[in-house]
Design a protein that fits this description.
Number of strands: 5
Shape: globular
CATH topology of the largest domain: Alpha-Beta Plaits
Strand content: 15-25%
Largest sheet: 3 strands, mixed
CATH architecture of the largest domain: 2-Layer Sandwich
Structural class: alpha+beta
Strand order of the largest sheet: 1-2-3
Oligomer: single chain
Order of helices and strands: HHEEHEEHHE
CATH class of the largest domain: Alpha Beta
């Protein structure tokens, strides 16, 4: 068997396991941009119209696998839903996106993912001062604001 078949099989396997999550994504109207296997995990990336839609997906993921160690879901909330009222974002810069902390995350790791530079982690910490008291203490499930570059 070819090795690409293994990746295809893994994708099929994970899509079946997380079928209810994929259904929830569709029901919530989340626009997916990526669904593939990355680092032997199901990688899902998309944009939700609201924080509630995003949270519904995360609730479904946790119901299937509370450790979510075989899935990476990068679901952001589109900024245009409150474009007319910058105060609706709860203050801050008004630009950026949300990110839900996953097991194994650090601010440096998140910074590397979004900015390509782990040393930009203080930018994320500063944007989340209302939620974080220490850059070394983030919790799985926390929703952080990732300021734009």
């Amino acid at each position: 068997m070819a090795q690409t078949t293994t990746t295809d099989q893994r994708l099929t396997e994970l899509k079946q396991k997380y079928a209810s999550v994929l259904t929830m994504i569709q029901q919530q109207g989340i626009r997916l941009s990526h669904v593939h296997v990355q680092d032997d995990k199901l990688f899902i990336q998309g944009v939700a119209s609201s924080e509630n839609a995003k949270n519904a997906v995360w609730t479904q993921i946790k119901a299937i696998n509370p450790q979510y160690n075989d899935i990476t879901a990068d679901i952001t909330v589109e900024a245009s839903s409150n474009a007319g009222s910058p105060a609706a974002s709860g203050g801050g810069q008004g630009s950026g996106q949300s990110y839900t902390v996953q097991s194994g995350d650090t601010l440096s790791k998140i910074s590397k993912q979004f900015y390509g530079d782990a040393n930009q982690y203080m930018k994320i910490f500063e944007a989340n001062k209302g939620k974080l008291t220490d850059p070394d203490k983030i919790q799985v499930g926390q929703v952080l604001t990732i300021p734009s570059k």
